[in-house]
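Sequence in, structure out. Go.
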Amino acid sequence: MLVYTLLILVAGGLQALAARVQVTWDVGYLNISRDGISTWRAIGANGQLPIPPIYVTQGDVLELTAINHLDKPLSLHTHGLFQRNSTYYDGTGMVTECGIPPNAQFTYIIETRDQCGTYWVHAHYETEGIDGLRAALVILDQDTSLLDEYDEDVLLTLEDWGKEPYDDHIKQLQTIAEVDMPPNNPSVLINGINANILQPIRFTPGRRYRLRVVSMSFTYWFKVRLPGHTMQVIEADGISSHPSAVDGLDLCPGQRYSVIITAHESLDYNYALNVTFYNDFIVEIPGATTLYHHVPIVYNDNAPVKTFPVIEDKDVKWADELAMEPRDEQVLLEPVDQHIVRSVKALTKYLGIPIYAFGNYSYAPVPVPPLLTALTTGDMALSPSVYASQLNAIILQHNQIVELELRNPDSIIVHTYHSHGHAFQVVESGPVNKNSSVPVKRFKGRYPMRRDTITLALGQYVRVRIKADNPGVWYQHCHQEQHNYSGLAFTLVEAPDVMQRTLHVPSEMLEFCRILGHPTQGNSAGRVGSDMTGIEPPLAIHGHADSSDT
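Output:
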C-alpha cells in the first residue's frame, strides 16, 4: 500500500505556491492485476494504475489535460468542485459536453479560489471510472491558521475493484435473473493497492495526523475505525467543519472525510485501522470476498498490536452530517421558494437490464447535451418543453432557495445521491412511511452541515437545501455505477437566462460534438420548440408520486 503523506513544514508556505498546475492524463487501456487475483483490460493514465493523487493549493488553477487513447469518447469530472461560471468543465458526458473523441485531447481549466478540501477526479462519460480512471484531488487550504491543528497530512483512498471490465459485467446482467448484481467478488484497494498487502502507516508519539479518507467507490460502502484513538472530524466532502469527536466513519460511494487523530505518547503498542467493505446486497463468498481489512498503525516495530473487544455497529458513534456544523457557520437557507420531491423507482427488468428512475422517467442521454439546449434556445430555455422527458429536467430560477426531498421507498437496496455544482445543506431525514417507528432526525445545531454526496437509507427520505446561485446544468444521480447507468438521475437546469448572458462554451467542445455527430443547438433532438422527432420515447416508471411545487 502506498502511503501519501504531506509534512506540514512552514506555516506561511502554502500561500506562496499559488500557480497554474499542469497535469496530463494520457488515457488508455492496460492489462493489469491490481488485486493480485484477476488480470483484465483496465483504463489508466500515463500507462499506470493507480493514478497518483493531485495536490494543489487553494487559489491555484489546475489545468488537467486528457489525451484520449480509448476507442470511445471520454470526459473527466472533478467530483465535488462547483465549476462556478464554468459548468462546461464539469465533465459530465452528454450533459455538459459531448465528450473528447478518440485520439483527441482537451484541457479542463479548474479554478480553486473558492474551494479547498478533499475531492477526486474520475471519468464520467460511461463506465471508464469504475474500470480504473480515478484519482484523489486535494486542495490545500490557503488559510494557514488551520495548519496549527495538525502536523502531518495523510491520504487514504478506498476503491472497489471488480474481476472484469464493467461493460462485460453489463452483458452478464442481460443474461441472468437477478434484479441487482454488483461486480463479482470484488476486491478492496487501499491507496490503489490490494488491501491484503498492506504497508504500515507510522505514528510518532504526540503528533497530530490529518487523515483524509476518500471513497473512490462506485458500488460499495466503507466503514473506517481506529480503536484506541479518537477521531476529530474536521471536513466532509470539501466543507470544513467545527471539530467533533467520533469513533468511526461510514462512507458511501463518493464521500470524503478528514479527521484529526492525535498519536499516543506511549510506544508500548501498535494498532490497526479497521476498514470494513459492505453493501446490503454483498454475498460473502469464503475465499473470494474479504470484507474486513486492517491497516497497521505502527508506533514501534517491536511492539505487539493492541486488541480491543468487538463493538457492534449500533454502539459506535459514527460521523453524522446532521450532528456536524460547518466552520463558516452558514445559516439555514430560507424561506424555501421551491420544494421538489424525487423518489427512487425501479422496474425489475427492461431488455434484460434493471432500470431505475429518480422521478417519473428513467434517465437517458439525448442527442444534444442539455447545457447546449439551455444556451441556444432563448426564452424557451426556461420551458421544460425543450428538454426531453428522460432528462428529468428541473428548471430553477436564479437565486431561488430550493428544498429537495429525496425518497428511497426501497426495502432492499440502499441508494446514494450526489449533486454536481452544489454542496447541499443537510436538513432532515426520516421514514418515507409516516407510520414507521424510524425517528425523524433534524440538524442539531444552529448551522446545517453541507456536503455533496449522501446515503439514501432503506425506506427513508433526506431533505436538503441549495441556493440556485450557480448558473449551469448540473447532473444529480446515484453514485452506484450500476444504478446511474440504469437511469437513476435527473438534471437541474439552473438559471438558463443568466447562463445565456455569462457562459461561453469553448469552441473545441463544440467541434468535438460535430465530430461525434451531435447537434450543438436546439432542443434535446436538435430541433425547434417541443419537436422531439428522432428521440426514443422515454421509459416511464410509475410509483410514488413526485412533485415540483413553486
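Check: Helices lie at 166-173, 370-376, 481-485, 496-502, 507-515. The radius of gyration is 23 Å.
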